[in-house]
Backbone:
């Protein structure tokens, strides 16, 4: 599309009107300022319909905007909501915000990144047991490094009982 | 005196003044935070969902046979004073006593060792209370209770984060172990701040008599763990008990010995002044009462007066609290009336026997 200048001032035209009068096609090209002066803006039926539609759509669009990209699929909570209140919305928030929460949780729990400890008997499938063994081994290394032999011994006990059962 | 009967705690475990190290440790508590899978946490739960959670928990707690008798209380059916009685007995939190949302508590009778708050910050907050230093026993009991409930309810879990809780500060084991310590010796020798600093350095929380946000009146302090992830329950418990609490107990005992041997006169004077004040006062404010009871507890633990028992003192600590006083008197009391009744109650309990 070619850029038409405003027929009054020569600035780039933004309003283009095509009128067919007595079988003759007539085009008008105007900048916004001159189009307004000539009464081509605001009163046309097309413009006001768009404005009415906008009035209905805008709030709907802006309402759904903040939740859609970053909200938790389980409860719709955003990370900003959590930041504000300090409490999560549902169990799925932990996976929805895993990255953001991971570092925060690490700071709150002396650098810990994953659970070591009780697992419900029914949920204690092979997979989680293997994971547990892996993290216990890491914990054991840490205890040995810091020369906390008492703790190391108790971890070793748990490791051997876990390995026996799997 | 039948204040005890009126208050209904003839057999409340943690008031017995017994148990290991009860000269310093008033009580031990272990609590677990659990949430039922398939429901949002409480901040996002509708009233309808909260009612469902309440009903579900109530049914399964009752069916699990967790104590000889389990008493269920719908908190919205209780008066403000009755709810406050539960707070003073450490059966529910201050936060749980407030509001009008659907919430309840299950209490294990007859010894009130067990309480399960439903719809507090998490769906379930299970706690076991014991007299003296008995964290291991408390943990064994709560672990069995948790197993029983888990046979009937699915708790929200993740492989990485363990038990999922509304606040990420409780995630993982969801465990909080705490002890209520009486540390008047360290307070009098001015060493209490060292304990506070050491506890902070070890990521422990030090709070007052009624937990979060409460003052340490009468030299009672609550110390608890804050880390709940990356360590097993046994590990956390072991470290808490052997590395922290047993050290604080030793430290407090040596402060008491020092007071009793090197500052004998002042120490005895302090005790007898408190005894005199509590035996004869006609008006007693809650804080003043607790402060004086604290000196008596200290003196008794150092063998100063065999007439007064730790158990009587422990009960007075609780009975002199506002809601308990009102329950004993059987009516609502204004603050001014409470001072009169508190003094009357304490006088009767501590009256000289000659």
Residues:
């Amino acid at each position: 599309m070619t850029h038409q200048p405003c027929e009054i001032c020569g600035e780039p035209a933004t309003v283009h009107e095509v009128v067919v009068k007595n079988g003759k096609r007539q085009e008008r090209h105007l900048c916004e300022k001159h189009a307004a002066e000539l009464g081509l803006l605001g009163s046309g039926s097309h413009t006001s319909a768009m404005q009415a539609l906008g009035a209905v759509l805008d709030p709907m669009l802006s309402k759904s905007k903040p939740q859609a990209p970053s909200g938790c699929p389980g409860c719709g909570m955003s990370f900003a909501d959590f930041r504000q209140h300090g409490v999560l919305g549902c169990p799925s928030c932990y996976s929805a915000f895993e990255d953001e929460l991971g570092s925060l949780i690490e700071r709150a729990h002396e650098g810990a990144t994953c659970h070591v400890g009780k697992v419900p008997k029914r949920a204690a499938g092979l997979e989680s047991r293997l994971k547990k063994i892996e993290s216990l081994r890491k914990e054991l290394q840490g205890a040995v490094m810091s020369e906390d032999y008492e703790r190391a011994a108790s971890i070793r006990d748990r490791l051997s009982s876990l390995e026996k059962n799997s | 005196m039948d204040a005890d009967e009126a208050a209904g705690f003839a057999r409340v475990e943690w008031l017995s003044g017994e148990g290991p190290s009860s000269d310093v440790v008033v009580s031990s508590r272990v609590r677990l935070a659990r949430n039922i899978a398939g429901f949002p946490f409480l901040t996002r739960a509708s009233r309808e969902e909260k009612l469902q959670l309440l009903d579900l928990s109530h049914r399964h707690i009752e069916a699990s046979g967790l104590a000889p008798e389990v008493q269920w209380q719908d908190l919205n059916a209780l008066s403000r004073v009755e709810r406050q009685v539960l707070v003073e007995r450490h059966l529910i939190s201050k936060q749980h006593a407030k509001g009008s949302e659907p919430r309840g508590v299950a209490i294990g009778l007859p010894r009130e060792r067990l309480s399960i708050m439903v719809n507090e910050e998490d769906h379930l907050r299970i706690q076991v209370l014991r007299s003296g230093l008995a964290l291991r026993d408390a943990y064994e009991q709560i672990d069995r209770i948790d197993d029983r409930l888990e046979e009937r309810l699915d708790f929200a879990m993740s492989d990485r984060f363990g038990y999922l809780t509304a606040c990420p500060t409780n995630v993982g084991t969801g465990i909080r172990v705490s002890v209520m310590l009486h540390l008047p010796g360290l307070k009098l020798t001015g060493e209490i701040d060292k304990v506070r600093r050491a506890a902070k350095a070890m990521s422990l929380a030090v709070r007052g008599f009624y937990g979060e946000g409460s003052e340490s009146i009468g030299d009672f302090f609550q110390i608890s763990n804050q880390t709940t992830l990356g360590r097993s329950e046994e590990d956390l418990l072991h470290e808490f008990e052997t590395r922290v609490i047993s050290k604080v107990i030793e430290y407090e005992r040596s402060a008491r010995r020092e007071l009793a041997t090197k500052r004998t006169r002042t120490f005895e004077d302090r005790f007898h002044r408190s005894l005199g004040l509590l035996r004869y006062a006609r008006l007693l404010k809650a804080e003043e009462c607790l402060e004086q009871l604290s000196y008596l507890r200290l003196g008794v633990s150092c063998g100063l007066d065999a007439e007064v028992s730790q158990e009587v003192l422990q009960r007075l600590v609780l009975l002199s609290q506002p809601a308990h006083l009102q329950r004993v008197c059987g009516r609502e009391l204004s603050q001014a009336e409470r001072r009169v009744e508190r003094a009357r109650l304490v006088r009767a309990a501590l009256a000289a026997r000659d």
Summary: Chain A has a mean pLDDT of 75. Chain A touches chain B at residues 74-75, 77, 85-91, 94-95, 98, 101, 104-105, 108-123, 127-128, 131, 139, 150-151, 154-155, 158 (CB under 8 Å).
